[in-house]
Amino acid sequence: MAYAELFCQSNFSFLVGASHPQELVRQADFLGYDAIAITDECSVAGVVRAYTEIKRHHLGIKLIVGSLFRLQGLELILLCPHRQAYAELCRIITNARRRSAKGHYKLTRWDLKTVKHCLAIWLPSGKADIDDEWSRLLIKHYPDRVWIGCRRYLSASEPEYLQHCESLSATYQLPICAVGGVLMHVAQRQSLQHVLHAIREHTQVSKLGKQALSNCERALRPLSKLTKLFPASWRKQTTAIAAQCQFCMSELQYEYPAELVPQNKTPQQHLRDLVEKGVEIRFPEGISKDIRAIIEKELTLIAEQRYEYFFLTIHDIVQFAKSRHILYQGRGSAANSVVCYCLEITAVDPRQINVLFERFISKERNEPPDIDVDFEHERREEVIQYIYQKYGRERTALAATVITYRFKSALREVGKALGINETQLDYFIKNVNRRDRGLDWQSQLTELGVDPESHYGQQLISLVNEIMGFPRHLSQHVGGFVISAGPLYQLVPVENASMPERSVIQWDKDDLESLGLLKVDVLALGMLTAIRKAFQLVEQHYGKTLSIAGITKMKDDPEVYRMIQQADTVGVFQIESRAQMSMLPRLKPKTYYDLVVQIAIVRPGPIQGDMVHPYLLRREGKEAVTYPSKDVETVLSRTMGVPIFQEQVIQLAMVAAGFSGGEADQLRRAMASWKKNGELLQFKSKLVNGMLERGYQKSFAEQIFQQILGFGEYGFPESHSASFAVLAYVSSWLKYYYPQAFYTALLNSWPMGFYSPSQLVQDARRHGIPVLPVCVNQSQYDHVMQPVAQQQHFAIRLGLRLVKGLSVQAAEKLVTSRDPVTSFTSMADINALGLNIGQMEALASADALHSIQSNRYQARWSLMDTLPSLPLFDNADSEHDYPLRPSDMDNLLEDYATLGLTIGRHPIALLKDAKLLDAFTSASELIQCSHKSLVTVVGVVTGRQAPGTASGVTFITLEDHTGNINVIVWQATARSQKQAYLKSKIMKVKGIVERGDGGVIHVIAGKLFDESHLLNELHTSSREFH
Amino acid sequence: MSPIWLYLHFPNLQLNTLFSGNTGSHETLPVVVLDAKKNQVCQRNGSARKLGIQCGMGLATASSLSQQLQVVSYCREVEESQLNVIAETLYQLTSDICFFQPDGLALRIHNMLNLYGGLQPYWNMLREHLTRLHIEYQASTAWSPLAARVMARNQINTISDQRDNIKTALGQCTIDSLDIHNKDKQKLKRVGLHTVADIVALPLKDIARRFDSYLVTYLGRLKGELHHPLPFFHPPEYFYRYLELLYEIEKTDTLIPPVKRLLNELESFLKIRNHTTSELTLTLYQRDHTPLEVTLGSAQCEYRAQSWLKLLSLKFESVTLTAPVYAISIRVDKLQELNPVRQDMFAGKQAQISTLQLRAILEAKLGASAVQQLCYVSEHRPEYSQKQVPLSDTDVDAASVDILPDRPGFLLSEPLPLQEKVTVIRGPERISTGWWDNQQAVRDYFIARNQFGQLLWIFRTPHNYWYQHGLFC
User: Do residue A929 and residue A809 come from a single domain?
Assistant: First the structure.
């Protein structure tokens, strides 16, 4: 008995289908179906996953691509017999989607009439008048390509409906085929389907009533059952239709935009010419044999894989950025090649780092090359507009991101569907700590009063579990563009994004990868903006022209590394976080490659995989570097035998466990998504057995697998780390040699990075850089470098951009109307600018009028006066002096409120002088404290970070007038002193000094005190990272 | 005589009205009142305070400080009605009472002081009454209602008629506690003005040049320089009390203590007015159900709580709660003078009655829920597809439910095992649903004919047991 399921909706028919496409094809294959069509409503978003699943597990089942459409009582399934029909389907979906807002579609009769290739299965409505009308249209436009699809759900009025279908069939000579109308792969998904239905209807399952499915017949059913339900002729039609459907997703070939290559050249030639041109720019002194050999090898590899267009596309984009002086930097598996260096996609000098392109792009792994290009965050839009303009909107769109149910959304929605009231759900959600590694969320819910034995508790927990990972809707990828030669809608449906003027395709980056389609990632990076601004400042004030490539060419600078080793890296790219900073004095990076390791090692992956310690020990020579085999040595020698990068883990699987290229690629993808689907575990036996067969110890194999698990979603690839390390080095270099330019540029690029302007300014001042206040007579809109005393020495003059409530326009007006010689001398001058009162008050409170008025209260008070605005009183400064003067504390509060920072006295210094604080140890004195001594420290809480890795530890950063103090709070301490832990803005900590390797100093918190009451209006909002 | 106003601020008014059967546990369990709109704690009891829960805190933070936190939603109406109760009580002492909704009362008292022999004796008397109400308060006196209000809300409990005392106390109050626009508060603070004393020190004309007339008028009234017209309270002609329970109560006899408290209030209400009543309505607010109204009539007019309580306990025997009760209220609309003329009880006439009248009488006698009709429910499981609802339940729309043609007219209340030979003539219809309420039904239904030619609705279970569930007409 043969059967093909031609009507099946996956969970990409959002809130309708209750199974993943993967589950559907697996189950259909298991049941022995010949073929299965995934026919989501006006969508093909799920088909790639189904296709990939079949390919991965070498399933015997055939996949048919199709889609369900609804229009005025008509339900029609279109199936794709061949590539042309597929293009047609994509066009129809695109048109229907583009007519409608995001997430909806609008089909028209015209769409249906233009279908020339797709096969159609019609699901009659059961209403005679409607069905008669549609059958006439279908006969006319779908000659010999339309069937009546009959479903059997064992519902009450089914006999009459089937009779109706049979009479339609007889009247109009339409053949009948059996269809399942499948919504779930197994009957057990019925409850989840009910829940999804209730979520869709914004109601509760118990209130769905007869709208809900009455039984489980919309699951994939065994052939034996189908034989009983459907006549043989109906079943035969299904396989006949399936036989006509010869289209396979693998036929989709990406066609690159042709205009990238001049007409008389082949892409290979053109790429080679560009590379040769680049060689002259990058290696003006000529190139060595080695590098020539690498270039040839890379070009051959590119030619073999036919990746020329991909490199040319990116080359074209970065050339545009270059012409506009937009700073950029490429990263990703293919980016760190000599070819990319020559094409000016990256600035990593290959002589510096000795990385092998092969390591990043591999034939046997057969993964598409990955190049992400970061652009200045303030100017990325220019690049995007260039792409749209060059290729047209028809040919380019963003990749999708599938938004799935995560724990909180899952609990909230399932809870509502089960009728749990919302305050209760809020309570659960707010009190479940997903970071708590000791207790999973199920146990935490139990602690919060859900009885896991009760019917209700079991339902809630199992349904939340099931729905997690279910897609909710499509969103747009941050910057992944797909560009094609012809209209994109012949390749994949395109729909509207929520952002106006953006469109997204229906596939996400994994789908694109599975099909070998290329996307170009155009991303935004704040640090690039800052570096470009710093370069400009250096050029302006020191007359030196800098570039990223130029700085990396100068070889590793020991002075810069000395600074990095001391963790003096506030504001520096990547290595500025608390965790990174505490590792720097231990790892003591000396070279570029050390930075590559540093960036990748302080990640949850290596930390959970327990790779940090062995690496440190081996680096310090305290542990011998050994390898279980020669093969392993080739993979791990650059990291002293410890796997640190994602690529190494994949390579290990290949050389040590005998994974094929394809299998290794699957492993890589499973690692990327394992938290979602738990797919990694299926690789365990293969990996461990493979390694045992090749003579490795079982313990070594187990350890590698544990490391893979630890890497999971957090693994960091060397190819990205290598590019990040360049930016980390360049920013450190700037910080060391041109600190004024560095801080000024950072402040002018904010928001970006890890630190607030306040923290950056504090750091600048600790480096002896004078910071001058905002002033209407001195400041520009941006922060600027201002010469002080003798030349070659600069102070940072804070800019008007810092003043909250002052618009860009107002600031510019002020600057342009200012006479550099006479400047503003009275309130009347300021009034004459014609700014609105709010803007002027903002200036007054920021004390930007200090050169005109004695203090900010006085300035504001006279601005508030409504009388002087009459011309008659223009110069009448009759107002007597305002009696109130701001105290230090008032100034501090006003500074924080208006600027977010103060260059006056630090709050802790003020509290100390006011004798509000008991004796304490300041940050600068902490160095003198011995290991394990008891201290009391106090400071403004500027950071509260609970990394997912560090089993319940929270890092709190306290800032006092002398520097930052790193406080470590253990989970038990945090739990028992919740109030102070959660609420303090100013915190006093009694604890123990811990001095680690390389002079890292922490305070392990014992007792926490909330001292916020001392300054309860302080507006430093601490940045919390969860 | 210069005016003196007394202001009473009730910071935890809703919290204080929550009834707790056991005051001991009331104190140990942390309770907060949550302003759901802002998601902020707006009132909290002593143990919540001890745990560090503060007003203005978000629910997440508050609940992270205590796992046992009891949360009650803020309800302005509760406070308003409670404020009425307080005003009624204080009306015995002072005639000029003004409302500052939802949590304050201003009393004009200088005209009462002669009667009571000075401020202190008056205050003592007032305090005694307040203590009996078990409601937290802050009180202050000043020369104007606004000044007294600001002081009370600043927790400056100054009961004094000395101008200097008042001036000093008022001067300490912060700008934040003034009833002025937030915008103006910000403006004042941004020029360094933080207390009432700061503002009062500035010449009014300088302020007038910088702020709108609202603020200037407000300051004038605060200082007592400008007249502040206010409407005075007039006691209502009916009795109404609402009481939210701290715990949900499921048995009627446990309801007696809170009801008694309301009846006591009724007694004093009636006594003060020299009134009685013959009918009262007790409303029991049930979780997720419509409130249950219990109307008590007494042949003889009555004011004593004890007598009403006796009647009520009798009535409670026939009252069953469908869901836990979270609040109760008592309402009395008809008040009568204490010695009313007796009605002639034998003057009633007999007459024919209409269906509607009959229904009304039945509902009155048996309770509205006892008179029922049958209606359809949108539900796949046959045993839940119809239900009995009170005739008075108007939101049942039977027509809205699709009735399938192959459903029997007569459904057995319990399926019976099939014990006769039948011939299946239609089916199966598979029903397999109901996982959510643990009443899962998995059945194949058939229409079958028995040897008498009757059409039966039968079903088969997965274990192949056959049952009869209905009969076609």
Answer: no
**Cβ neighbours, 10 Å, residue A306:** 12
How do B275-286 and B325-332 pair as beta strands? antiparallel
Q: Are residue A819 and residue A922 in the same domain, yes or no? A: no
Among B63, B210, B378, select the one facing A427 at the smallest CB separation: B63
B377 touching chain A per CB within 8 A: yes
Comparing CB atoms, the residue among B59, B202, B379 nearest residue A209 is B379
B116: left (phi over 0), alpha (psi -120 to 50) or beta: alpha
Which pLDDT score is estimated for B395? Answer: 59
Q: In this complex, which of A154, A205, A841 lies closest to B436 when CB atoms are compared?
A: A205
- Whether residue A588 lies within 8 A of chain B, CB to CB, comes out as no
User: Average pLDDT, stretch A712-717?
Assistant: 68
Interface pTM, i.e. ipTM: 0.74
Instruction: Give me the domains of chain B, ranges plus CATH numbers.
Output: 5-29+68-223 (no CATH), 239-337 (3.30.1490.100), 353-403 (no CATH), 408-473 (no CATH)
Look up the domain containing A962 and give its range: 907-1025
In sequence order, the β-bridge partners of residue B442 are B432
Structural domains counted in chain A: 5
Predicted local distance difference test score (pLDDT) of residue A529: 95
| pTM reported for the whole predicted model | 0.76
3-state secondary structure labels for all residues of A109-137: HHHHHCCCCCEEEECCCCCHHHHHHHHHH
A539, part of any domain: no
Q: Supply the DSSP string of A717-733, one letter for each residue.
A: -HHHHHHHHHHHHHHHH
Searching chain A, which residue's CA lies closest to the CA of residue B378? A209
Could you tell me if A501 lies within 8 Å of chain B, comparing CB atoms? no
Q: What is the mean pLDDT of chain A?
A: 86
Burial class (CB in 10 A: 0-12, 13-18, 19+), A878: exposed
- In this prediction, residues B99-126 reach a mean pLDDT of 86
Does the CB of B406 have a partner CB in chain A at under 8 Å?
A: yes
Per-range mean pLDDT, top range of A316-325, A342-351, A982-991, B337-346 = A316-325
Mean pLDDT lowest for which of A337-346, A556-565, A693-702?
A693-702
Q: Are A199 and A417 in contact (CB under 8 A)?
A: yes
Residue B207 forms contact with A (CB below 8 Å) = no
Residue B275's SS3 state is: strand
Higher pLDDT, B155 or A814: A814
According to DSSP, residue A151 is labeled -
The answer to whether residue A23 neighbours chain B at the CB level (below 8 Å) is no
List the single best residue of B433, B446, B459 to mutate versus A (max A Cβ within 10 A).
B433
Examine the domain organization and report whether A810 and A876 are in the same domain: yes
Is residue A387 in a domain? no
Residues of chain A contacting residue B429, judged by C-beta atoms under 8 Å apart: 154-156, 158
Does pLDDT of A1017 surpass 60? no
Task: Give yes or no for A154 touching B (CB within 8 A).
Answer: yes
Q: Identify which of A209, A430, A867 has the shortest CB distance to residue B209.
A: A867
The CATH number of the domain holding residue A158 is 3.20.20.140
